[in-house]
Amino acid sequence: MKVIYGNDLDNSIPKDAACALGFFDGVHIGHQKLIRCLKEYSNSHNIGSMVFTFDRHPLTVLDSARAPKLIYDNESKTRVFAELGVDILYFSHVDRDFLRMSPYDFLDKVLVGHMNVRAIVAGFNFSFGNGASGNAQFLRDFSKKSGVEVRIVEPVHLDGTVVSSSEIRASLAEGNIGIVNRMLGRPYAIHGEVIQGMQRGRKLGFPTINLSTAEGMMTPKDGVYITYVNFNGLRKIGITNVGSNPTFNGRAKTVETYILDYSGDLYGADVSLEFCKRIRDEVKFATSKELTAQMDSDLRFAEVFLDKN
Questions:
Q1: Which helix (H) or strand (E) holds 121?
Q2: From CA 146, how far away is CA 15, in angstroms rounded?
Q3: Cβ neighbour number for residue 145 with a 10 Å cutoff
Q4: Taken in order 64, 68, 70, 75, is the CA torsion positive or negative?
Q5: In which band, very low, low, confident or very high, does the pLDDT at 214 lie, cut at 50, 70 and 90?
Q6: Cα–Cα distance for residue pair 135/123, rounded to 1 Å
Q7: Which of 14, 97, 173, 208 is the most exposed place for a label (fewest CB within 10 A)?
Q8: Using one digit for the tens of pLDDT, what is the confidence trace for 110-131?
Q9: How many beta carbons lie within 10 A of that of residue 113, not counting itself?
Q10: Angle at the Cα of 261 (from 258 to 266), degrees rounded to 5?
Q11: Whole-angstrom Cα distance, residue 154 to residue 28?
């Protein structure tokens, strides 16, 4: 898959392309339905498949106070789109000039005139252009005038709820990892670098790794989770605490993981945590002995859960 950032395209763009439009935060099962539609069209017409998305959420430019925390960063999106078989992933630079462009100019000058797009696939609720004035009906009207094929993908429902990035964020905020993973179609994961912590876990017999988290990214509701820890080609069971470590009067939020059956220095390593289940709330224990006893209980619960699942 070819990945392009910015506003300048090179010769790797196919002469003709089918293009999916969206922000695609999480690349959830609704987005995956859209990408399947894109691939079906591109394969049947023997043209390239391209995803046109944005390098940042538009609200970070228009009204940063209202910008949502994100489920996936661009690196995570890239990995998933590659797995889905997309030929080209284009991250458009988002600034005020781009957001002031009329929906017609975006379609006619950018997609058709510059990128040779011959078919457009978008979700039922996708909006674009100045003042978000472009929508599904605008795309249908454009299709009639231009001859560009337009396919609007209807929503995917899960237990009566429309799957969306906002629903996933709400479920993460409640710690409902099971629902999040079903909506994503894969385990929710955090990727980051192992950074220096306070090393309290090591002193208690439970050495942990601390994962860096980028500003503006979602983390699940504070609490203790069963996770899979992926690093250096290994996949291990982990117990992850998201929160501020109240037993030690912590204040800053951390993502701290004890890895079962592993000992070694992982400082600076790239690690991904796949969240499987929330075990409990974060608790302030009266003594470190109470904390270690609870950790032993958490480990036993995790082993039983993963053995059954």
A1: strand 117-123
A2: 17
A3: 10
A4: negative
A5: confident
A6: 9
A7: 97
A8: 999 989 999 999 999 999 999 8
A9: 11
A10: 55
A11: 14
Helix axes 177-184, 29-44, angle to 10 degrees: 10
Distance between CA atoms of residues 182 and 168, nearest Å: 10
- Record the tokens describing residue 59, joined without a space: 């609200």
Distance separating alpha carbons of residues 33 and 35, to the nearest angstrom: 5
Q: Return d(Cα 281, Cα 222) in angstroms, integer.
A: 7
pLDDT at 160: 95
Contact by Cβ (8 Å): 114, 15: no
198: tokens are 């306070």
C-alpha atoms less than 13 angstroms from C-alpha of 190 in its C-beta half-sphere: 28
Which one-letter amino acid corresponds to residue 24?
A: F
Task: State the pairing for strand pair 223-231/234-243.
Answer: antiparallel
For residue 70, give the DSSP letter: B
Amino acid at 43: N
